[in-house]
Queue: 2 jobs
Job 1
Amino acid sequence: MLVLTRKVGEEIIIGNGIRVQITAVKGDRVKVGIVAPPHIRVDRAEVAERIREFAEAEPVGAGR
């Protein structure tokens, strides 16, 4: 894992076209802005996990 220290307004570039910017720090919370191409899905980890669990629980061919 790469660990970086950034200040508000500073960015991290990932590959070609993904930009991560620190937009605010307040107490123990950090606001992060992410710009990515439309074909790259960006989710919070807990949301991505729920999506994955839902997809695994749904039987193949359900609804037909």
Job 2
Amino acid sequence: MPDMKLFSGNAIPKLAQRVANRLYTSLGQATVGRFSDGEVSVQINENVRGDDIFIIQSTCTPTNDNLMELVVMIDSLRRASAGRITAVIPYFGYARQDRRVRSARVPITAKVVADFLSSVGVDRVLTVDLHAEQIQGFFDVPVDNVFGSPVLIEDMLQQNLANPIVVSPDIGGVVRARAIAKLLNDTDMAIIDKRRPKANVSQVMHIIGDVAARDCILVDDMIDTAGTLCKAAEALKERGAKRVFAYATHPVFSGEAAKNIKNSLVDEVVVCDTIPLSKEIKALNNVRTLTLSGMLAEAIRRISNEESISAMFQH
């Protein structure tokens, strides 16, 4: 069996090291930096001929830099005669650009990125909670989309919640919320229906379900500016919610996210370590991070040993 080796770019070095620790190995020797003009510079400093390679790199902010690091690392390893190369992309950037709405003159950038990765010789992709699962079909190579929900649910069960109810922040998140509610001891579910009565009129939030005197668990795949999240928490508290917790896999936290969360009625925001947190977010007392290192390590082990990934999520 070929040797398994892990490599990391500069996007999520701490998560990469945690994964390596879980697998009782060390990260591969590589120099990933920049030339004086800003171009990505990569050199693999050990023999990888015939090895089973896993590159751990989220394509988060700075998105283009991290994507180029990943692509150039794949090319470097391919040219060094690596046996198989799996791109482990915990957070897949550009995933929200997955379709042309009403035939608008816009790109499908998720497809562009998929083609880019395939063109440099990646053999497989492992990612977490893709924003749209159909992105798997954009690739010409196998894609394993694993879920952060088991880690999130394990934490929820430890929180001593009072009569909890799972809340979907929009209609599009109902499937995710229903799945989590089922695993959370078949708890109840509520839905926030956002609508704008007419043009230039403020958006109204209708809550479908009874949240009075209950601990609400808002679930989503990512938190970006946190604007919608904070408005949802306010609406839930107005309807009598006792506490509001927000759980999401990907902490994008762009724009004024830190300010929005600081001034919000959200009791706690719980995210995973697929994206590094900024200093402003780390300074908030109500933001907590869980690690996906154990789950990713197990997925990598299974891929390397040709074992089933789907078996990890069979309940």
